[in-house]
Amino acid sequence: MLKTLLVGRCLPAATIGLLLVAGCDRGEVTSYDIPKEPATGQTPAPQGPGSDPHTGMGMGWPSVKWGELPTGWTQSPQTSGMRLATFTLAAPQDQSAEMAIIPMVGFAGTDQQLVNMWRSQLGLPELEATGGTPPERVQIGGVEGQLYEMSGTVNEVATRIIVAAANRDGVNFFFKLIGHDAVVTGQKDAFLNFLKGVEFTAPEPAGAPAPVSMPPMAATAPSDGKRWEAPSNWEERPATQFLLAKYRVAGEDGASAEVTVSMLGGSAGGLLPNVNRWRGQLNLGPVDEAGLAALLQDVKAGSVEAKLVQLEGTDLKSGVPARMLTVIVTLPTETWFFKMTGPVPVVQAKTDEFLAFVKAARF
Amino acid sequence: MSLKGLIDFFSSLRLTVVCLVLALVLVFVGTVAQVELGLYQAQNDFFRRFFVYWAPGDSGIRIPVFPGGYLVGGLLLVNLTVVAFRRFAFSANKSGIWLIHLGLILLFVGQLLTDLLSVESMMHLREGETRNYSERPREAEVVLIERSGAETERVIAVPEWRLKKGGAVPLPGSDLTLVVRQYFRNSSLERLPEGSMHPAAATLGFGASILARELPHVTEMDRRDVPSVIFELKGRGAPEGTWLASEYIDQPQPVLINGKTYELAMRPRREYKPYSITLLDFTHDKYPGTEIPRNFSSRVRLQHPAKGEDREVLIYMNNPLRYDGATFYQASFDTDNLGSVLQVVRNPSWLTPYLSCALVSVGLVVQFLIHLVPFLKRKVRP
Description:
The structure holds two protein chains of two kinds.
Chain A: H1 2-21, E1 30-35, E2 63-65, E3 73-75, E4 85-89, E5 97-104, H2 111-121, E6 136-140, E7 143-154, E8 157-168, E9 171-180, H3 181-197, E10 199-201, E11 235-237, E12 245-250, E13 256-265, H4 271-281, H5 289-295, E14 296-301, E15 304-314, E16 321-330, E17 334-343, H6 344-359
Antiparallel strand pairs in A: 2-10, 3-4, 4-5, 5-9, 6-7, 7-8, 8-9, 11-12, 12-13, 13-17, 14-15, 15-16, 16-17
Chain B: H1 3-10, H2 13-47, E1 51-54, E2 63-67, H3 69-87, H4 95-117, E3 119-126, E4 130-146, E5 152-159, H5 160-165, E6 167-170, E7 177-184, E8 187-191, E9 210-214, E10 228-234, E11 242-246, E12 253-257, E13 260-286, E14 293-304, E15 309-316, E16 321-323, E17 326-333, E18 339-346, H6 352-380
Antiparallel strand pairs in B: 1-2, 3-18, 4-5, 4-13, 6-7, 7-10, 8-9, 10-11, 12-13, 13-14, 14-15, 16-17, 17-18
């Protein structure tokens, strides 16, 4: 009887029970409170398995070089993620400070959001849009940048953050000094001297491998010759890896717009994602398919039908009102883009000239 | 098949032999497969499965071709149990046999529980640094952190498996919903080239300037996947558009929702503990005159305010700290010898191998004595 019970009932029940607990430690979506963490930032990546995810990001973006480090600074042996370098600063017992170089590929937010993020690290209230003093100017490797400084407390320890930011070739470089207030204050001069001595290096043009999903890119004009003729008053600028042609179109009062020509294979990733990306560059929200249809106008590019998208917003880089005209020419195997971007008055004044340029193209 | 037939099948010695042979083959093939697949993938494909599958080409079809570890182990466990109950009476002269079988059953069950319940994570500490959490290096989570509290910060964490599943994820403690648009198990990020017409990974935050691409799953022991996810945040006051979160982005992205600034990040999944560990000193001893490591040790301070504990512990090779259900092993260290990595293992069934070995040992001795004593008695009888 006992055997029958054990074999017939307990065993299957135990087996099912064991199987049920499988996967019970996957963790659920949770919300919890934790004590505020000290703002010590990242530490060097350790040796050993699982610590070095990839050998590099292959970003192909500009970088930073520096010479001799200030006294008491030591570079941490490895950095992680997108951090270019981290330096530990000499500090008395029980105190610490570090400086990190963080390149950020563009930032679709505002300076205020960044400042408020750093302020929140120090337990400071957020600033309103008009609050706070404008950042100081600072020289970073021959580039003029902004200097932000704030102090507060982290876990009841007086802490100071000094951030220098500069944009180089579309990449925002942040040099963030954080640590005990006394240490950071004492190191400020050394930090500013360090900034002066850094050197931005140019991106390697063909260093980054193309994404797997990216259609093949054309680096040169088609073999049947150039498809367009730019007006003589447009100043030709050096083309890049991704642009077949680039022109500077002068307006009044020294302002200018930029015209670019590029081509991608296939459908170039789809029209809607491209349009929404352009809208993002002008600080405009995304649209859906219906919104996209309302934006498209029919134009001619040579002998083929093309679509024109006109967008107006605020240029995220310069912060000034800007206008963007893009003509998209969809061919069976490739997609061409003619784009004019610049301050609103310049683009408005040059719209007809631009459309005539596109219309004269040979397709 | 009748119940008797079923019991006959499960108590058959042939089943034992077949299972042992299958286990032999499985262990051999699974071990060899580690060369190509790496340890973790091989464990999952051969041992943590009921079947080993073969997927022809890119067909998406999976054909079971061999019994996996769970099936072979499960059959052996059932076989062992049924045999014990069917063949051996509950009697004193069989007590040794019972103890041996109980020990083996406990070993099987304990190993299954270890596989299902044990959790490994890492705690990386620099000298002087204190942490109250460990991180799972092969699992990520997306977190939204709200830091407006004076003493505490509110964290909403979505584990990676939930991101992989896709769809809408209601975020507890808020009226927000995270809607997954694309999940990459392994990924790489690239700067969106100036003037590129290729769409950015996302429309908001850092992702608006980044190209994200999927990479093949990494199986080597010394590398790991770096996941990324593209998602939307839905809810009152949430900005419209998509966000990119990736373990590559080690800087939190500010997200402004209803006047509150959240920090968005993807990071290794964290396990918070009610106590904290401070690394006081890391020592890397070498044999004199050589670079050959002799010993690694971490002197840590363990503080558990709720229990009033505050003590120093020395963790070194083969001398882990066992505390509150977790075991802290000395696992690795920083290249500058100023930081230490502790492997934190939480295994509720860690005692079962010891108990099962003890049971088997006692059972063997008892069974031996049960036969030895009558034999000796017969021998000394005139």
